[in-house]
Specification:
Strand content: under 5%
Order of helices and strands: HHHHHHHHHHHHHHHHHH
Shape: globular
Oligomer: single chain
Largest sheet: none
Radius of gyration: 21 Å
Length: 414
């Protein structure tokens, strides 16, 4: 007798040696379900189940804690074959898959194509970077949940899970940038000569992500009326950000006011962009700003993994340029503040002394998917990108209110 817990027949799952049998089993089982709850591809809610399981695992949760979360999960997932009756009609292949982007009925075919190529690739991480690059104009779709899922799948290592994430991005694809190709506007995707350390230092001091936003703030304040849009910008926060992505005026505004993301300072730019995302979240905690942080962490993790395998940095730079366009659109939507929030100097030492083990334990005891994922992302940033007290501040505020969108001004300078 079959049940809706039955894995897909073509699944060749490779358990992670770094994870328990329970975690591996739950992830293998979840792979048989649609990446959105209820199988609603557009306008539906992402299936946070596997991402939360891996966040808990990354926060040091025991099998008992993970099982407790599993027992509480509402289970609105939809089995791809047994409930949604989806089939692989063998239409898609490695040459034509881009012609079917955004078509939800082909999720199993996307999965097959990507899994086959991953299994045949000498460097799966390089393959992922290449596919993400080809789908870069749809990077923010689904509030970045496909990207986040891909990152977690790469952490686990099973190629089927990675293929699931890539297929998720493929069916959620929509060209948010109107086909614009600005993947080298500032650096032309070439490194002609290596600048001196002195030149790099001077450039990095001036050309920071935060300074870029300050320039944009000044421009909007003084010349904002000159900005012309091709459409009426309206709707909720998420929809406005998606609209701004495709506006040539916003794309030009971003590139003309600074952050030159290039090969020489890529990881420095990643650190700066990550801090901008985090402090924008502190400025206005919300679903969009929270996912700005968690998606930034996902892209940073993917970037580190790919750079370790000598991935062509041109592809990674293009992904960060697209992310920066979206994040700047969110910055504008949130009121383009002149200054981002700063920590209360009187509390800085106290917050800095908080240890991640205790913070992680507290987060694991609050079974809310966004809260758990946000704490995981902040911990990862602190341990892998920059040991900034701001990451601890965000977590302390979240845990203090037991809310992923804390509203009190606690910890922030007046």
């Amino acid at each position: 007798m079959t049940t809706i817990n039955t894995p897909l027949q073509d699944t060749r799952f490779k358990p992670s040696k770094d994870m328990s049998a329970l975690v591996n089993g739950l992830l293998k089982q979840d792979s048989a379900f649609h990446p959105n709850l209820g199988g609603v591809t557009k306008g539906g809610m992402s299936n946070h189940y596997p991402m939360t399981i891996l966040s808990l695992q990354g926060l040091g949760a025991s099998d008992e804690e993970i099982q407790h979360f599993t027992d509480m999960w509402p289970r609105h997932r939809a089995h791809l074959t047994q409930q949604l009756n989806l089939k692989d009609r063998q239409i898609l292949n490695e040459k034509n898959w881009q012609e079917y982007l955004g078509q939800a009925d082909f999720v199993l075919e996307f999965r097959r194509v990507f899994l086959t190529q991953l299994q045949n690739s000498e460097s799966p991480n390089n393959y992922v970077a290449n596919i993400l690059y080809q789908m870069r104009n749809g990077l923010p779709m689904g509030l970045f949940h496909p990207l986040i899922r891909i990152s977690f799948a790469m952490i686990h290592g099973d190629k089927g899970l990675i293929a699931d994430g890539l297929a998720y991005m493929a069916i959620r694809f929509s060209d948010l940038y109107s086909g614009a190709d600005f993947s080298g506007v500032l650096n032309e995707n070439k490194i002609t000569s290596k600048p001196s350390s002195e030149a790099l230092s001077k450039k990095s001091e001036e050309n920071t992500a935060e300074n870029a936003w300050k320039k944009i703030h000044s421009f909007i304040e003084t010349q904002g009326q000159s900005i012309q849009f091709t459409q009426t910008i309206q709707g909720g926060s998420l929809h406005i950000c998606e609209q701004l992505c495709r506006e040539p005026a916003i794309q030009s505004l971003v590139f003309e006011n600074g952050l030159d993301i290039n090969h020489e300072i890529l990881m420095q730019s990643v650190a700066e962009i990550s801090m901008c995302a985090l402090r924008l979240y502190l400025h206005q905690p919300a679903l969009t700003t929270l996912h700005a942080v968690t998606s930034c962490q996902a892209l940073a993790d993917i970037t580190q993994r790919c750079l370790a395998e000598q991935t062509d940095s041109k592809q990674l730079i293009a992904l960060w340029q697209h992310y920066w366009i979206w994040l700047t659109g969110l910055y504008i939507e949130k009121g383009y503040p002149k200054n981002l929030p700063k920590i209360d100097a009187n509390l800085e030492t106290e917050i800095a002394l908080k240890d991640w083990k205790s913070l992680a334990i507290s987060a694991r005891n609050i079974p809310e998917v966004h809260l758990i994922k946000m704490v995981y992302s902040c911990k990862w940033f602190f341990e892998n990108i920059e040991q900034s007290v701001y990451y601890k501040l965000a977590v302390v505020k979240i845990l203090k209110e037991r809310n992923a969108h804390p509203r009190s001004p606690y910890g922030l300078a007046k």
